[in-house]
Amino acid sequence: MLELNRIELKDLTPEPSLLREIPISFAKANLVLPLRISDGELIGLVSDENSILSLSDIARKKGLKPSWLMVAKEELLELIGRFYAELGSAEEVMETISGEDLSSVATEFERPKDLLELTEEAPIIRLLNAILQEAVKERASDIHIEPYEKELEIRYRIDGILTKVLAPPKLIQEALVTRVKVMANLDIAEKRLPQDGRIRLLIGGRDIDVRVSIIPTVYGERVVLRLLDRQQGIKGLEEIGLEDDHSRMIQDLLARTNGIILVTGPTGSGKTTTLYAFLNRIYSVTKNIITIEDPVEYQLKGIGQIQVNPRIGLTFASGLRSILRQDPDVIMVGEIRDLETAEIAIQASLTGHLVLSTLHTNDAPSAITRLLDMGIEPYLLASSLSGVIAQRLVRTICPYCKLDYEPLPAEKDYFDNPPERLFRGRGCPECNGSGYFGRTGLFEVFVIDNEVRGLISMKKDSETIKQYAVSKGMKTLRMDGLRKVLKGVTTLEEVLRVTQIS
Questions:
Q1: I need a labelling partner for 120 at 20 to 30 A (CA). Which of 40, 104, 228, 420 fits?
Q2: CB 229 within 8 A of CB 202
Q3: Would you say the pTM of this structure is higher than 0.85?
Q4: Residue 450: which residues within 8 A CB-CB, separation 6 or more?
Protein backbone atom coordinates (compact mmCIF):
# COMPACT_ATOMS: atom_id res chain seq x y z
CA MET A 1 0.00 0.00 0.00
CA LEU A 2 1.30 3.46 -0.92
CA GLU A 3 1.85 6.12 1.68
CA LEU A 4 -0.69 8.94 1.44
CA ASN A 5 2.03 11.56 1.02
CA ARG A 6 3.56 9.83 -2.00
CA ILE A 7 0.75 10.86 -4.33
CA GLU A 8 -1.15 14.10 -4.56
CA LEU A 9 -4.61 13.52 -6.08
CA LYS A 10 -4.44 16.76 -8.06
CA ASP A 11 -1.22 15.56 -9.74
CA LEU A 12 -2.60 12.22 -10.91
CA THR A 13 -2.16 11.41 -14.60
CA PRO A 14 -3.28 7.83 -15.37
CA GLU A 15 -1.75 6.01 -18.31
CA PRO A 16 -4.35 6.16 -21.14
CA SER A 17 -3.38 2.63 -22.26
CA LEU A 18 -4.40 1.23 -18.86
CA LEU A 19 -7.75 3.02 -18.92
CA ARG A 20 -8.49 1.72 -22.42
CA GLU A 21 -8.02 -1.85 -21.21
CA ILE A 22 -10.60 -1.47 -18.42
CA PRO A 23 -14.18 -0.35 -19.21
CA ILE A 24 -15.52 2.57 -17.19
CA SER A 25 -18.44 0.39 -16.07
CA PHE A 26 -15.95 -2.05 -14.46
CA ALA A 27 -14.00 0.80 -12.84
CA LYS A 28 -17.14 2.30 -11.30
CA ALA A 29 -18.67 -1.00 -10.22
CA ASN A 30 -15.46 -2.18 -8.56
CA LEU A 31 -14.21 1.25 -7.38
CA VAL A 32 -10.77 0.84 -8.88
CA LEU A 33 -8.68 3.21 -11.00
CA PRO A 34 -5.34 1.91 -12.38
CA LEU A 35 -2.78 4.69 -12.67
CA ARG A 36 0.52 3.37 -13.99
CA ILE A 37 3.05 0.55 -13.99
CA SER A 38 6.31 1.18 -12.14
CA ASP A 39 9.08 -1.24 -11.08
CA GLY A 40 6.92 -4.31 -11.63
CA GLU A 41 4.00 -2.84 -9.70
CA LEU A 42 0.54 -1.83 -10.89
CA ILE A 43 -0.29 1.36 -8.99
CA GLY A 44 -3.93 2.28 -8.61
CA LEU A 45 -6.61 3.98 -6.52
CA VAL A 46 -9.08 1.95 -4.43
CA SER A 47 -11.69 2.76 -1.78
CA ASP A 48 -12.35 -0.50 0.10
CA GLU A 49 -11.26 -4.13 0.50
CA ASN A 50 -13.31 -5.33 -2.49
CA SER A 51 -11.67 -2.79 -4.79
CA ILE A 52 -8.24 -3.91 -3.50
CA LEU A 53 -9.13 -7.43 -4.66
CA SER A 54 -10.15 -6.05 -8.06
CA LEU A 55 -6.86 -4.21 -8.45
CA SER A 56 -4.97 -7.33 -7.34
CA ASP A 57 -6.82 -9.38 -9.95
CA ILE A 58 -5.90 -6.90 -12.72
CA ALA A 59 -2.27 -6.90 -11.57
CA ARG A 60 -2.09 -10.71 -11.44
CA LYS A 61 -3.32 -11.01 -15.04
CA LYS A 62 -0.50 -8.68 -16.09
CA GLY A 63 2.10 -10.49 -14.00
CA LEU A 64 2.54 -7.53 -11.69
CA LYS A 65 2.28 -6.79 -7.98
CA PRO A 66 -0.57 -4.49 -6.80
CA SER A 67 0.16 -1.22 -5.02
CA TRP A 68 -2.67 1.06 -4.02
CA LEU A 69 -3.75 4.33 -2.47
CA MET A 70 -6.99 4.48 -0.49
CA VAL A 71 -9.32 7.41 -1.27
CA ALA A 72 -12.94 8.18 -0.40
CA LYS A 73 -15.59 6.53 -2.60
CA GLU A 74 -17.09 9.84 -3.77
CA GLU A 75 -13.68 11.24 -4.67
CA LEU A 76 -12.73 8.09 -6.54
CA LEU A 77 -15.95 8.10 -8.59
CA GLU A 78 -15.32 11.74 -9.50
CA LEU A 79 -11.77 10.93 -10.64
CA ILE A 80 -12.97 7.94 -12.68
CA GLY A 81 -15.54 10.12 -14.43
CA ARG A 82 -13.01 12.88 -15.12
CA PHE A 83 -10.21 10.71 -16.48
CA TYR A 84 -12.42 8.53 -18.67
CA ALA A 85 -14.09 11.70 -20.04
CA GLU A 86 -10.63 12.98 -21.02
CA LEU A 87 -9.60 9.65 -22.54
CA GLY A 88 -10.77 10.11 -26.12
CA SER A 89 -10.97 13.47 -27.86
CA ALA A 90 -13.04 14.03 -30.99
CA GLU A 91 -9.82 14.44 -33.02
CA GLU A 92 -8.61 10.99 -31.92
CA VAL A 93 -11.93 9.43 -32.91
CA MET A 94 -11.73 11.16 -36.30
CA GLU A 95 -8.30 9.58 -36.83
CA THR A 96 -9.74 6.11 -36.21
CA ILE A 97 -12.70 6.80 -38.47
CA SER A 98 -10.49 8.03 -41.32
CA GLY A 99 -9.40 4.51 -42.10
CA GLU A 100 -12.95 3.16 -42.33
CA ASP A 101 -15.46 3.15 -45.17
CA LEU A 102 -17.35 6.36 -44.39
CA SER A 103 -19.59 5.98 -47.42
CA SER A 104 -20.95 2.64 -46.19
CA VAL A 105 -21.42 4.04 -42.66
CA ALA A 106 -23.40 6.99 -44.02
CA THR A 107 -25.47 4.68 -46.22
CA GLU A 108 -26.30 2.47 -43.25
CA PHE A 109 -27.61 5.47 -41.34
CA GLU A 110 -29.94 6.39 -44.21
CA ARG A 111 -31.95 3.19 -43.68
CA PRO A 112 -34.07 3.45 -40.49
CA LYS A 113 -34.31 -0.32 -40.05
CA ASP A 114 -30.53 -0.58 -39.69
CA LEU A 115 -30.19 2.14 -37.05
CA LEU A 116 -31.23 -0.12 -34.20
CA GLU A 117 -28.67 -2.73 -35.23
CA LEU A 118 -25.72 -0.38 -34.80
CA THR A 119 -23.62 -1.02 -31.69
CA GLU A 120 -21.81 1.48 -29.50
CA GLU A 121 -18.66 0.68 -31.51
CA ALA A 122 -20.05 2.27 -34.68
CA PRO A 123 -17.66 5.10 -35.71
CA ILE A 124 -20.33 7.79 -35.96
CA ILE A 125 -21.61 6.95 -32.49
CA ARG A 126 -18.10 7.11 -31.08
CA LEU A 127 -17.52 10.46 -32.79
CA LEU A 128 -20.69 12.05 -31.41
CA ASN A 129 -19.95 10.64 -27.94
CA ALA A 130 -16.44 12.13 -28.09
CA ILE A 131 -17.83 15.51 -29.21
CA LEU A 132 -20.27 15.54 -26.28
CA GLN A 133 -17.65 14.41 -23.75
CA GLU A 134 -15.16 17.00 -24.87
CA ALA A 135 -17.80 19.75 -24.79
CA VAL A 136 -18.60 18.93 -21.16
CA LYS A 137 -14.89 18.82 -20.29
CA GLU A 138 -14.33 22.23 -21.91
CA ARG A 139 -17.38 23.77 -20.11
CA ALA A 140 -19.17 24.45 -23.41
CA SER A 141 -22.75 25.70 -23.19
CA ASP A 142 -23.56 24.89 -26.84
CA ILE A 143 -22.34 22.60 -29.62
CA HIS A 144 -22.85 23.77 -33.22
CA ILE A 145 -22.78 21.24 -36.09
CA GLU A 146 -22.69 23.45 -39.18
CA PRO A 147 -22.81 22.23 -42.79
CA TYR A 148 -21.29 24.25 -45.62
CA GLU A 149 -20.83 23.62 -49.32
CA LYS A 150 -17.66 21.52 -49.08
CA GLU A 151 -17.08 21.08 -45.36
CA LEU A 152 -18.62 20.39 -41.99
CA GLU A 153 -17.68 22.42 -38.90
CA ILE A 154 -18.06 21.64 -35.20
CA ARG A 155 -17.93 24.65 -32.89
CA TYR A 156 -18.29 25.01 -29.11
CA ARG A 157 -19.60 28.07 -27.32
CA ILE A 158 -17.37 28.47 -24.26
CA ASP A 159 -17.98 31.40 -21.91
CA GLY A 160 -20.20 32.98 -24.56
CA ILE A 161 -17.64 32.82 -27.40
CA LEU A 162 -17.85 30.38 -30.33
CA THR A 163 -14.68 28.42 -31.08
CA LYS A 164 -14.03 26.01 -33.95
CA VAL A 165 -12.87 22.65 -32.61
CA LEU A 166 -13.24 20.12 -35.43
CA ALA A 167 -13.80 19.84 -39.20
CA PRO A 168 -15.03 16.30 -39.97
CA PRO A 169 -15.33 15.21 -43.62
CA LYS A 170 -18.51 16.39 -45.35
CA LEU A 171 -19.30 12.75 -46.13
CA ILE A 172 -20.35 11.95 -42.56
CA GLN A 173 -22.70 14.93 -42.23
CA GLU A 174 -25.98 13.03 -42.67
CA ALA A 175 -24.83 10.15 -40.49
CA LEU A 176 -23.89 12.52 -37.67
CA VAL A 177 -27.17 14.46 -37.82
CA THR A 178 -29.14 11.21 -37.99
CA ARG A 179 -27.38 9.94 -34.86
CA VAL A 180 -28.42 13.12 -33.03
CA LYS A 181 -32.01 12.58 -34.18
CA VAL A 182 -31.99 8.99 -32.95
CA MET A 183 -30.75 10.07 -29.52
CA ALA A 184 -33.38 12.84 -29.31
CA ASN A 185 -36.24 10.60 -30.57
CA LEU A 186 -36.83 12.82 -33.61
CA ASP A 187 -38.06 11.86 -37.08
CA ILE A 188 -34.97 10.75 -39.02
CA ALA A 189 -36.86 10.83 -42.33
CA GLU A 190 -37.89 14.50 -41.95
CA LYS A 191 -35.20 16.71 -43.44
CA ARG A 192 -37.27 19.66 -44.71
CA LEU A 193 -38.70 21.06 -41.46
CA PRO A 194 -37.13 22.27 -38.20
CA GLN A 195 -37.22 19.83 -35.28
CA ASP A 196 -36.65 20.22 -31.55
CA GLY A 197 -35.95 17.56 -28.95
CA ARG A 198 -34.03 16.64 -25.80
CA ILE A 199 -31.37 14.13 -24.82
CA ARG A 200 -30.58 13.01 -21.27
CA LEU A 201 -26.96 11.92 -20.83
CA LEU A 202 -24.62 10.74 -18.10
CA ILE A 203 -21.08 11.90 -18.91
CA GLY A 204 -18.32 11.20 -16.43
CA GLY A 205 -20.87 10.83 -13.65
CA ARG A 206 -22.50 14.19 -14.48
CA ASP A 207 -26.19 14.36 -15.38
CA ILE A 208 -26.37 16.45 -18.57
CA ASP A 209 -29.60 17.61 -20.21
CA VAL A 210 -29.14 18.39 -23.93
CA ARG A 211 -31.64 20.57 -25.77
CA VAL A 212 -31.58 19.78 -29.50
CA SER A 213 -32.52 22.17 -32.32
CA ILE A 214 -32.27 21.12 -35.98
CA ILE A 215 -33.05 23.37 -38.94
CA PRO A 216 -32.72 22.74 -42.70
CA THR A 217 -30.23 24.90 -44.63
CA VAL A 218 -29.17 24.95 -48.27
CA TYR A 219 -26.18 22.70 -47.47
CA GLY A 220 -27.96 20.28 -45.16
CA GLU A 221 -29.37 20.22 -41.65
CA ARG A 222 -27.78 22.44 -39.03
CA VAL A 223 -27.73 21.23 -35.41
CA VAL A 224 -27.32 23.17 -32.17
CA LEU A 225 -27.07 21.26 -28.90
CA ARG A 226 -27.47 23.27 -25.67
CA LEU A 227 -25.92 21.58 -22.64
CA LEU A 228 -27.39 21.97 -19.14
CA ASP A 229 -25.53 20.44 -16.21
CA ARG A 230 -28.20 19.37 -13.73
CA GLN A 231 -25.64 18.89 -10.97
CA GLN A 232 -24.79 22.59 -10.94
CA GLY A 233 -28.24 23.25 -9.52
CA ILE A 234 -30.01 26.59 -9.19
CA LYS A 235 -27.82 29.56 -8.32
CA GLY A 236 -28.56 31.90 -5.44
CA LEU A 237 -28.62 35.71 -5.62
CA GLU A 238 -25.08 35.83 -4.25
CA GLU A 239 -23.77 33.59 -7.06
CA ILE A 240 -25.03 35.42 -10.16
CA GLY A 241 -22.80 38.49 -9.77
CA LEU A 242 -24.97 40.99 -7.89
CA GLU A 243 -23.20 43.74 -5.99
CA ASP A 244 -24.41 44.35 -2.42
CA ASP A 245 -26.53 47.40 -3.25
CA HIS A 246 -28.23 45.63 -6.17
CA SER A 247 -28.85 42.55 -4.04
CA ARG A 248 -30.60 44.63 -1.35
CA MET A 249 -32.78 46.39 -3.94
CA ILE A 250 -33.83 43.11 -5.54
CA GLN A 251 -34.60 41.49 -2.21
CA ASP A 252 -36.84 44.44 -1.37
CA LEU A 253 -38.67 43.94 -4.69
CA LEU A 254 -39.06 40.18 -4.08
CA ALA A 255 -40.47 40.83 -0.62
CA ARG A 256 -43.55 42.47 -2.17
CA THR A 257 -46.76 40.46 -2.50
CA ASN A 258 -47.87 41.96 -5.82
CA GLY A 259 -46.55 43.78 -8.87
CA ILE A 260 -44.46 42.85 -11.90
CA ILE A 261 -40.67 42.38 -11.84
CA LEU A 262 -39.06 42.13 -15.28
CA VAL A 263 -35.62 40.83 -16.24
CA THR A 264 -34.46 42.16 -19.62
CA GLY A 265 -31.59 41.50 -21.98
CA PRO A 266 -30.78 39.74 -25.27
CA THR A 267 -30.92 35.98 -25.81
CA GLY A 268 -28.20 34.21 -23.85
CA SER A 269 -27.71 36.95 -21.27
CA GLY A 270 -28.69 34.75 -18.33
CA LYS A 271 -32.25 36.00 -17.77
CA THR A 272 -33.66 32.55 -16.98
CA THR A 273 -30.84 31.83 -14.51
CA THR A 274 -31.66 35.10 -12.75
CA LEU A 275 -35.38 34.27 -12.60
CA TYR A 276 -34.57 30.88 -11.07
CA ALA A 277 -32.36 32.62 -8.50
CA PHE A 278 -35.33 34.87 -7.64
CA LEU A 279 -37.62 31.84 -7.23
CA ASN A 280 -34.99 30.11 -5.14
CA ARG A 281 -34.90 33.13 -2.81
CA ILE A 282 -38.68 33.55 -2.36
CA TYR A 283 -39.58 29.84 -2.20
CA SER A 284 -41.48 28.89 0.94
CA VAL A 285 -43.84 26.07 1.90
CA THR A 286 -46.38 28.81 2.67
CA LYS A 287 -46.40 30.08 -0.94
CA ASN A 288 -47.96 28.61 -4.06
CA ILE A 289 -45.49 29.29 -6.91
CA ILE A 290 -46.33 28.31 -10.50
CA THR A 291 -44.29 28.90 -13.65
CA ILE A 292 -44.95 28.67 -17.38
CA GLU A 293 -41.77 28.33 -19.43
CA ASP A 294 -40.47 27.57 -22.91
CA PRO A 295 -38.70 25.30 -22.25
CA VAL A 296 -38.51 24.17 -18.62
CA GLU A 297 -34.72 24.09 -18.17
CA TYR A 298 -34.41 23.00 -14.54
CA GLN A 299 -36.92 21.23 -12.31
CA LEU A 300 -37.53 23.18 -9.10
CA LYS A 301 -38.64 21.31 -6.00
CA GLY A 302 -41.93 22.55 -4.55
CA ILE A 303 -42.78 24.69 -7.59
CA GLY A 304 -45.35 23.84 -10.26
CA GLN A 305 -43.83 24.19 -13.73
CA ILE A 306 -45.72 24.20 -17.04
CA GLN A 307 -44.10 23.61 -20.44
CA VAL A 308 -45.44 25.75 -23.29
CA ASN A 309 -46.76 23.69 -26.23
CA PRO A 310 -48.21 25.89 -29.01
CA ARG A 311 -49.08 22.83 -31.15
CA ILE A 312 -51.87 21.93 -28.75
CA GLY A 313 -52.81 25.52 -27.94
CA LEU A 314 -50.84 25.81 -24.68
CA THR A 315 -49.31 29.26 -25.08
CA PHE A 316 -48.00 31.69 -22.48
CA ALA A 317 -51.34 33.52 -22.55
CA SER A 318 -53.60 30.45 -22.27
CA GLY A 319 -51.36 28.86 -19.64
CA LEU A 320 -51.31 32.07 -17.63
CA ARG A 321 -55.11 32.16 -17.57
CA SER A 322 -55.19 28.61 -16.19
CA ILE A 323 -52.54 29.42 -13.59
CA LEU A 324 -54.74 32.21 -12.19
CA ARG A 325 -57.37 29.58 -11.34
CA GLN A 326 -54.78 27.64 -9.29
CA ASP A 327 -54.71 30.14 -6.39
CA PRO A 328 -51.06 31.20 -6.93
CA ASP A 329 -49.06 33.61 -4.79
CA VAL A 330 -46.18 33.97 -7.25
CA ILE A 331 -46.30 33.48 -11.03
CA MET A 332 -43.27 33.23 -13.29
CA VAL A 333 -43.88 33.74 -17.03
CA GLY A 334 -40.89 32.68 -19.14
CA GLU A 335 -41.26 35.60 -21.55
CA ILE A 336 -43.74 38.34 -22.42
CA ARG A 337 -43.95 38.05 -26.20
CA ASP A 338 -47.28 39.67 -27.09
CA LEU A 339 -50.00 42.05 -25.92
CA GLU A 340 -52.30 39.29 -24.68
CA THR A 341 -49.67 37.79 -22.35
CA ALA A 342 -48.68 41.27 -21.12
CA GLU A 343 -52.29 42.22 -20.35
CA ILE A 344 -52.97 39.02 -18.39
CA ALA A 345 -49.70 39.43 -16.44
CA ILE A 346 -50.64 43.01 -15.53
CA GLN A 347 -54.15 42.00 -14.44
CA ALA A 348 -52.63 39.23 -12.32
CA SER A 349 -50.29 41.70 -10.60
CA LEU A 350 -53.13 44.14 -9.96
CA THR A 351 -55.20 41.40 -8.30
CA GLY A 352 -52.59 40.58 -5.68
CA HIS A 353 -50.03 38.33 -7.37
CA LEU A 354 -46.27 38.76 -7.67
CA VAL A 355 -45.40 38.23 -11.34
CA LEU A 356 -41.86 37.58 -12.62
CA SER A 357 -41.06 37.59 -16.33
CA THR A 358 -38.52 38.50 -19.03
CA LEU A 359 -38.49 40.90 -21.95
CA HIS A 360 -36.01 41.54 -24.78
CA THR A 361 -34.73 45.12 -24.41
CA ASN A 362 -31.28 46.71 -24.35
CA ASP A 363 -31.62 48.37 -20.94
CA ALA A 364 -34.07 48.58 -18.05
CA PRO A 365 -35.93 51.83 -18.90
CA SER A 366 -36.55 50.58 -22.47
CA ALA A 367 -38.84 47.88 -21.04
CA ILE A 368 -41.41 50.59 -20.31
CA THR A 369 -41.55 51.90 -23.88
CA ARG A 370 -41.58 48.33 -25.23
CA LEU A 371 -44.71 47.47 -23.22
CA LEU A 372 -46.36 50.77 -24.18
CA ASP A 373 -45.57 50.05 -27.84
CA MET A 374 -47.25 46.64 -27.46
CA GLY A 375 -50.46 48.46 -26.58
CA ILE A 376 -50.51 48.43 -22.78
CA GLU A 377 -52.39 51.38 -21.29
CA PRO A 378 -49.96 53.73 -19.48
CA TYR A 379 -52.06 53.92 -16.31
CA LEU A 380 -52.14 50.10 -16.04
CA LEU A 381 -48.38 49.81 -16.53
CA ALA A 382 -47.69 52.59 -14.02
CA SER A 383 -49.85 50.83 -11.42
CA SER A 384 -48.44 47.34 -11.88
CA LEU A 385 -44.68 47.59 -12.66
CA SER A 386 -42.47 47.32 -9.56
CA GLY A 387 -38.99 47.05 -11.04
CA VAL A 388 -36.88 46.14 -14.07
CA ILE A 389 -33.49 44.41 -14.00
CA ALA A 390 -31.38 44.57 -17.17
CA GLN A 391 -28.41 42.24 -17.45
CA ARG A 392 -25.51 41.00 -19.55
CA LEU A 393 -22.94 38.23 -19.08
CA VAL A 394 -19.21 38.99 -19.12
CA ARG A 395 -16.30 36.57 -18.99
CA THR A 396 -14.37 36.55 -15.74
CA ILE A 397 -10.57 36.67 -15.52
CA CYS A 398 -8.96 33.24 -15.26
CA PRO A 399 -7.82 32.80 -11.62
CA TYR A 400 -4.94 30.53 -12.70
CA CYS A 401 -3.12 33.16 -14.77
CA LYS A 402 -4.46 36.46 -13.39
CA LEU A 403 -1.99 39.33 -13.27
CA ASP A 404 -2.09 43.07 -12.74
CA TYR A 405 -0.80 45.72 -15.14
CA GLU A 406 -0.56 49.48 -15.51
CA PRO A 407 -3.54 50.71 -17.58
CA LEU A 408 -3.04 52.88 -20.66
CA PRO A 409 -4.21 56.53 -20.54
CA ALA A 410 -7.13 55.62 -22.82
CA GLU A 411 -8.23 52.94 -20.35
CA LYS A 412 -8.00 55.31 -17.39
CA ASP A 413 -10.38 57.72 -19.14
CA TYR A 414 -13.30 55.37 -18.48
CA PHE A 415 -13.03 55.87 -14.70
CA ASP A 416 -13.90 58.90 -12.55
CA ASN A 417 -10.96 58.01 -10.30
CA PRO A 418 -8.37 56.44 -12.63
CA PRO A 419 -6.84 53.28 -11.11
CA GLU A 420 -3.10 52.69 -10.88
CA ARG A 421 -3.43 48.98 -11.67
CA LEU A 422 -5.97 46.82 -13.54
CA PHE A 423 -6.17 43.06 -14.07
CA ARG A 424 -6.24 40.58 -16.93
CA GLY A 425 -5.46 36.94 -17.68
CA ARG A 426 -2.14 36.03 -19.27
CA GLY A 427 -3.52 32.87 -20.90
CA CYS A 428 -2.81 29.35 -19.66
CA PRO A 429 -3.85 25.71 -20.31
CA GLU A 430 -6.73 26.02 -17.80
CA CYS A 431 -8.41 28.74 -19.90
CA ASN A 432 -7.16 27.48 -23.30
CA GLY A 433 -5.05 30.61 -23.64
CA SER A 434 -8.04 32.99 -23.56
CA GLY A 435 -7.30 34.60 -20.18
CA TYR A 436 -10.94 34.05 -19.15
CA PHE A 437 -12.59 31.31 -17.11
CA GLY A 438 -16.36 31.34 -16.46
CA ARG A 439 -18.86 34.22 -16.59
CA THR A 440 -20.68 36.56 -14.25
CA GLY A 441 -23.51 39.05 -14.61
CA LEU A 442 -23.64 42.82 -15.06
CA PHE A 443 -26.85 44.33 -13.73
CA GLU A 444 -28.91 47.50 -14.03
CA VAL A 445 -31.60 47.61 -11.32
CA PHE A 446 -34.41 50.09 -11.97
CA VAL A 447 -36.95 50.45 -9.14
CA ILE A 448 -40.19 52.16 -10.16
CA ASP A 449 -41.07 55.07 -7.84
CA ASN A 450 -43.89 57.62 -7.94
CA GLU A 451 -41.92 60.00 -10.17
CA VAL A 452 -41.36 57.24 -12.73
CA ARG A 453 -45.05 56.32 -12.58
CA GLY A 454 -45.83 59.90 -13.51
CA LEU A 455 -43.40 59.76 -16.44
CA ILE A 456 -45.02 56.49 -17.59
CA SER A 457 -48.50 58.03 -17.44
CA MET A 458 -47.22 60.92 -19.58
CA LYS A 459 -45.75 58.43 -22.10
CA LYS A 460 -42.25 59.87 -21.79
CA ASP A 461 -39.56 58.27 -23.96
CA SER A 462 -37.06 55.77 -22.51
CA GLU A 463 -34.14 58.24 -22.65
CA THR A 464 -36.00 60.74 -20.43
CA ILE A 465 -36.88 57.99 -17.99
CA LYS A 466 -33.29 56.73 -18.00
CA GLN A 467 -31.87 60.19 -17.30
CA TYR A 468 -34.20 60.51 -14.31
CA ALA A 469 -33.24 57.04 -13.01
CA VAL A 470 -29.49 57.77 -13.30
CA SER A 471 -29.99 61.12 -11.52
CA LYS A 472 -31.58 59.17 -8.66
CA GLY A 473 -28.60 56.83 -8.41
CA MET A 474 -29.35 53.98 -10.81
CA LYS A 475 -26.11 52.36 -11.98
CA THR A 476 -26.15 51.47 -15.67
CA LEU A 477 -24.80 48.20 -17.04
CA ARG A 478 -21.52 49.89 -17.90
CA MET A 479 -21.21 51.47 -14.45
CA ASP A 480 -21.72 48.06 -12.84
CA GLY A 481 -19.17 46.60 -15.25
CA LEU A 482 -16.56 49.22 -14.35
CA ARG A 483 -17.05 48.36 -10.67
CA LYS A 484 -16.22 44.75 -11.48
CA VAL A 485 -13.18 45.83 -13.52
CA LEU A 486 -11.79 47.71 -10.52
CA LYS A 487 -12.37 44.64 -8.33
CA GLY A 488 -10.44 42.44 -10.77
CA VAL A 489 -13.46 40.31 -11.64
CA THR A 490 -13.36 41.03 -15.38
CA THR A 491 -11.49 43.20 -17.87
CA LEU A 492 -12.31 46.62 -19.29
CA GLU A 493 -12.19 45.16 -22.79
CA GLU A 494 -14.85 42.61 -21.86
CA VAL A 495 -17.16 45.21 -20.30
CA LEU A 496 -16.88 47.47 -23.37
CA ARG A 497 -17.67 44.47 -25.59
CA VAL A 498 -21.03 43.71 -24.01
CA THR A 499 -22.31 47.15 -22.94
CA GLN A 500 -23.55 50.10 -24.89
CA ILE A 501 -22.40 53.65 -24.29
CA SER A 502 -24.30 54.66 -21.17
A1: 228
A2: no
A3: no
A4: none
CA atoms within 13 A on the CB side of 395: 23
β-strand 402-405 against 422-425: which pairing, if any? antiparallel
- 3-state SS of 134-200 is HHHHCCEEEEEEEECCCCEEEEEEECCEEEEEECCCHHHHHHHHHHHHHHCCCCCCCCCCCEEEEEE
In one-letter notation, the amino acid at residue 356 is L
pLDDT tens-digit series, residues 96-111:
555 544 444 444 433 3
DSSP helix/strand/coil, 89: coil
- Within its chain, how far is the Cα of 358 from the centroid? 17
Residue 436: its pLDDT value, please?
94
The Cα–Cα gap between 158 and 436 comes to 10
The alpha carbon dihedral of 339, 344, 345, 346 has a sign of positive
CA nearest 332: which of 352, 306, 312?
A: 306
List pLDDT tens digits, range 430-482: 888 899 999 999 999 999 999 999 999 999 999 999 999 999 999 999 999 99
Q: Please, what sign has the CA dihedral across residues 90, 96, 98, 103?
A: negative
Contact 79, 45 (CB under 8 A): yes
DSSP 420: S
